Amino acid sequence: MESVQATKQRFGIIGNDKALNRAVEKAIQVAPTDISVLVTGESGVGKESIPKIVHSLSHRKHGKYIAVNCGAIPEGTIDSELFGHEKGAFTGATQTRNGYFEEADGGTIFLDEVGELPLTTQVRLLRVLENGEFIKVGSSKVQKTNVRIVAATNVNMFEAIKKEKFREDLYYRLSTVEIHLPPLRDRGEDIHLLFRKFASDFALKYKMPSIRLSDDAVLILQKYRWSGNIRQLRNIAEQISVLEQTRAIDANALRSYLPNLGDNLPAVVNQKKNEGDFSNEREILYKVLFDMKSDLNDLKKLTLELMKNDDSDQVQNENESLIQKIYGNDEEQEQYQEELEEQMEVLHIPENYENNTPTPTSTTEDKYSFAEEIEEEETLSLQDKEIELIKKSLERHNGKRKAAAEELGISERTLYRKIKQYNL
Ligand SMILES: Nc1ncnc2c1ncn2[C@@H]1O[C@H](COP(=O)(O)OP(=O)(O)O)[C@@H](O)[C@H]1O
Ligand SMILES: [Mg+2]
């Protein structure tokens, strides 16, 4: 069996992190079998090399390897792309066409962003996995194919199953073996190792000496969140290589290239990120704050309701103490407000947002009045922000949806839907 080191070298995988090595080792171990593999991990962690390893070290290595990005194919054509169609199956189907599952017979198919597959396509895929059977769109003839499937996802599949966006039976079929790639932030010394590798690559490419990081810059590199993982690290190494005059990069110089430095809300941001639509961490924080606020508003309404319905002294007292619990005492309120302001400052949230933020007050009247008025306003400004982000990204990429979607951290299909929805 090929060694982990040799495989990493062959596929250009840099790093010595334990979890990374384990992932490569697992890929080597399952390769000779026909077992389905699900590769999981955040965007940019290097999921794409795993199916290549699996294919190259399998008995299918002389067969075809086809990589399909399920998130990039419009819902209307995905069945036809994967399974083919008969002539006349739909308008424009002037000829019979073979799908990837027919083309890859005897080889391997990599289904990237598999969580994006429409439910109807999931049914077809399940059938292929169960008995190798599929039917072209517009046909009634059952065909056979012998394909090994490796899938990848950066979304939480259990969430998707809970929301009924992904079939549970298909998930278990796909993930007979799961290979998880760790996020860059958890890979310790690998971070600097990768940076040096990219720095030397770009030095070669742009024909200048390689940039070097000072010790304090290395520390920053290691503490940063790297929400875009290795893809982001490489972009930043390239930017610095090209834009900096001097080749010795200190902490200050490095800092100016790292967005959202000082973001210390990893848990919340991380969870929201998986939901997909807000790539920029600041945007996510807006959303989190607003979600929190609307929860609070609900609570307030409920409390008010309770108070209206019963005015006996005892209940009144209980309500007062409930309110105390929800809002805390004056001191706690002040502290909460300060923390909120601090976080907003760290994230450079503009002042007017701050003004919209309800300050918990101690008079009972004030507590209920602001809720409805500002709710709509917030949704609108959030939407504006999203539209603006999408527009800017599209401009930056000359209208190329694929690149824009990648930058925004959403699927091409989601972007397409938003463009339609907002009439962009
Ligand atoms: N361990 C690694 N060593 C070197 N380059 C890597 C490594 N992992 C990922 N990359 C590079 O980072 C980029 C993102 O990897 P990719 O496989 O596309 O990520 P994902 O599919 O998980 O979003 C690619 O350009 C890839 O070559
Ligand atoms: Mg990818």
What is the oligomer described by this structure? single chain
* Ligand catalogue: adenosine-5'-diphosphate, magnesium ion
Helix percentage range: 55-70%
| Morphology | globular
**What share of the residues does DSSP label as strand, in percent?**
5-15%
Mean pLDDT: 83
CATH superfamily grouping of the largest domain: P-loop containing nucleotide triphosphate hydrolases
DSSP E strands, number: 9
Q: Structural class per helix/strand content?
A: alpha/beta
Number of domains: 4
Instruction: Give the class-level CATH name of the largest domain.
Output: Alpha Beta
**The CATH topology of the largest domain:** Rossmann fold
Largest sheet: 5 strands, parallel
Distance between the termini: 53 Å
Unreliably modeled segments: 264-278, 351-374
Radius of gyration, in angstroms, nearest whole number: 26 Å
The second-level CATH architecture of the largest domain is 3-Layer(aba) Sandwich
Discrete helix count: 20
Strand order of the largest sheet: 2-3-6-1-7
String of helices and strands: HHEHEHHEHEEEHHEHEHHEHHHHHHHHH
